[in-house]
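User: quick one
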Amino acid sequence: MGYRGFCLYLVLLALSLEPQNLKSEELTCNPTDLRALAGFSNCLESAIAGWNSTVSPDCCTWSGIICDNSTFSGRRVVGLELGSKRLTGKICESLAGLNQLRVLNLSHNFLWGSLPAELFSLQNIEIIDLSNNDFLGSISNKGMCTISTRIQVLNFSNNHFSGQVPKDLANCTFLNHLSFDGNSLSGSLPETLFQLKNLSELNLQGNRISGPLSNGIVNLSNLVKLDISSNLFSGVLPDIFGSLARLEHFSAMSNSFTGLLPNSLVNSPSLQMLNLNNNSLSGSINLNCSAMKNLVSLGLGSNLFLGPIPDGLSFCRGLKALNLARNNLGGELPNNFKNLKSLTQLSLSNTSLSNILSALRILQNCRNLSMLGLTRNFHDEQIPNDVSLEFKNLNSLILANCQLRGPIPQWLSRCHKLQFLDLSWNHLGGNIPSWFGKFESLFYLDLSNNSFKGELPKSLTELQCLISGKMTIEEPVSSFQLYAARQGGPSLSYRQISGLRPTLDLSYNILQGPIWPSFGNLKRLHVLNLKENNLSGPIPNNLSGMTYLEKLDLSHNKLSGEIPRALVNLSFLSTFDVSYNQLCGEIPEGSQFDTFPDTSFEGNNGLCSAEYCTCQSEQTRHSPGEKKMTTIGLPFGIGAATGFVLTVICCFMSGLSLP
Ligand SMILES: *[C@@H]1O[C@H](CO)[C@@H](O)[C@H](O)[C@H]1NC(C)=O
Ligand SMILES: *[C@@H]1O[C@H](CO)[C@@H](O)[C@H](O)[C@H]1NC(C)=O
Ligand SMILES: *[C@@H]1O[C@H](CO)[C@@H](O)[C@H](O)[C@H]1NC(C)=O
Ligand SMILES: *[C@@H]1O[C@H](CO)[C@@H](O)[C@H](O)[C@H]1NC(C)=O
Ligand SMILES: *[C@@H]1O[C@H](CO)[C@@H](O)[C@H](O)[C@H]1NC(C)=O
Ligand SMILES: *[C@@H]1O[C@H](CO)[C@@H](O)[C@H](O)[C@H]1NC(C)=O
Ligand SMILES: *[C@@H]1O[C@H](CO)[C@@H](O)[C@H](O)[C@H]1NC(C)=O
Ligand SMILES: *[C@@H]1O[C@H](CO)[C@@H](O)[C@H](O)[C@H]1NC(C)=O
Ligand SMILES: *[C@@H]1O[C@H](CO)[C@@H](O)[C@H](O)[C@H]1NC(C)=O
Ligand SMILES: *[C@@H]1O[C@H](CO)[C@@H](O)[C@H](O)[C@H]1NC(C)=O
Ligand SMILES: *[C@@H]1O[C@H](CO)[C@@H](O)[C@H](O)[C@H]1NC(C)=O
Ligand SMILES: *[C@@H]1O[C@H](CO)[C@@H](O)[C@H](O)[C@H]1NC(C)=O
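Assistant: Done. Structure below.
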């Protein structure tokens, strides 16, 4: 029986139930409710798993249905909990028949279409969760709360609703949680919203709401969480936070707010999380830490604040995450920052800070520090070589684009937890120390655009994490952003470490000698960039062992010999560049190699794509420091197809993040 047949059956069943006696009605669900459910099910395109009247004619036993215990005319349906049931299709007005319904949860499905007005004729409804579907159209002017006066939770997050934030919410006096985030709402906030005195959580982030945040918000004195980030709000922040005595979480990130930090905001005793990143706020950072006793996370990055970094911030002793990046602060790090013992995430990138030695000596006292962003500061200073420096818990260090001079310091070798290190775009020199290979968790290393010389340390091919892929990643809090200097321009920022592809970038240095065959051990590496060095010798066959490799750039070196055919086995390779080397022989064909442009191979006089061409020079050469091997690649075909299938499966299992 198809679902439509099933629905018809439900209707017939409903009709047949009505004349039955009280005893059986006591046990089963109310016939009106059964009919409404049949109508609801009929509008859907998918059957609902666990709704089967053959198995049980009593709808109260069906999955996701909650009934009360009334005996008068059968048990009434009071809850419809159908989250994550893979439902598709529309919801229709028959839902209105469930007139005792208190909880409607249809979240995480694939429902679409506009909302039926009848949704708001449910007199007893308290909780409506339609989040994470594909609903669209306007939510406004459906007279919500005229009949449905008892609504406490409205969650419409992550749909495609458009138009304005509804004006007719004023009668929703019980409303506690209101979430419209992740839609396409526009216009300014209606003043009626500010009559919802019982509201404790208001989520409006990720829409296109414009205009100021009006003083009216002063009336929402029960607010605990207010998130209006990623909208088009402008104007100054209202100075009303003294009245929001329960506010713990305020996020207004990525809007166009201007002006100073309001006095009541920088004196709020309740705030735990304040995120104002990416606005145009100005003036000084004048937080009153004597008042802000609960502050844990502070994001003021990417604004127009002027310095210096206030010493006063060091009295916010509970602070765990602090982002002041991209402001015009200047000066040195205040000495009292050594008292921020709880600090785990600190970003001061691009704040015109000077004196890196002093900054590091202060920050090593923050023993729990795990993420430190200092990119674009300290121009032209020497990288400190102070052996006593110690950062035991550091897992991410971003110190790029500072024009730092000197060799890689020894103290770095004791940062055993390092996962992410970016020292690119500096003037660092000397050899890359072999102890890099001992960082068991390192999966992202960017040393590009420096003056490193000598050979590639062989130990890099022993990086555990790039071999096994096993690691746990601590993500930055939402108010914290890591700015990596490069990868698609100097302003790219990463909010998720797990979104970073495992990378070794040593490009733009003066490294020489061979590419070690053991690089092939780095199965979990996604990006290998050795562009613009003086590397010589052959491209090892073994590189085909880097099964996850997506990008391989060996251009502008002095590599010779043939391109190993085995590289055809790299099924995820989407960028490949060996231009401007001294390669010869046939360019491999098949698989990904059919997609690479000619420019990937140019600047090599001996490369050709004809079948008969071979390297005219010697057929064998010495592989660096190891046994002799031929440059002619392994015959293509051995296990290529199975290799492809396996890697695809592994990749889907691990998703985008590292397992
Ligand atoms: C209901 O359950 C019966 C018995 O298990 C089964 O034969 C029938 O196909 C089911 N109907 C639907 C619509 O799933
Ligand atoms: C109905 O009665 C059962 C058993 O007495 C009880 O566990 C359940 O919570 C009641 N349900 C409602 C909705 O009151
Ligand atoms: C709705 O159901 C989902 C699970 O699918 C759950 O995460 C969510 O908390 C529920 N909503 C409410 C308001 O209880
Ligand atoms: C929708 O919001 C409510 C109130 O904040 C919350 O309880 C519920 O879990 C949310 N639903 C989902 C699917 O997260
Ligand atoms: C609010 O309720 C009153 C009284 O029930 C009604 O007259 C009014 O139209 C309602 N307002 C809205 C916006 O629904
Ligand atoms: C306000 O919310 C509280 C629970 O947070 C509830 O007990 C109270 O009844 C609500 N008041 C109104 C007027 O809705
Ligand atoms: C705020 O509350 C006061 C007093 O209850 C009321 O007079 C005023 O209209 C409210 N303001 C807004 C914007 O709702
Ligand atoms: C900063 O905000 C603007 C809008 O004001 C937005 O377009 C941009 O994507 C935001 N940048 C970041 C890094 O979030
Ligand atoms: C800072 O907060 C303390 C404690 O609330 C208060 O006594 C003091 O006046 C505030 N200072 C300023 C400058 O607002
Ligand atoms: C550095 O910060 C200034 C503002 O202080 C900004 O204009 C500039 O774009 C930032 N540069 C980078 C690379 O982030
Ligand atoms: C440092 O981190 C440890 C482990 O997470 C925690 O137990 C300790 O309380 C933290 N120290 C401070 C001062 O926050
Ligand atoms: C190298 O870094 C300098 C700044 O130190 C920058 O101006 C230059 O564009 C960078 N070169 C490359 C190729 O990234």
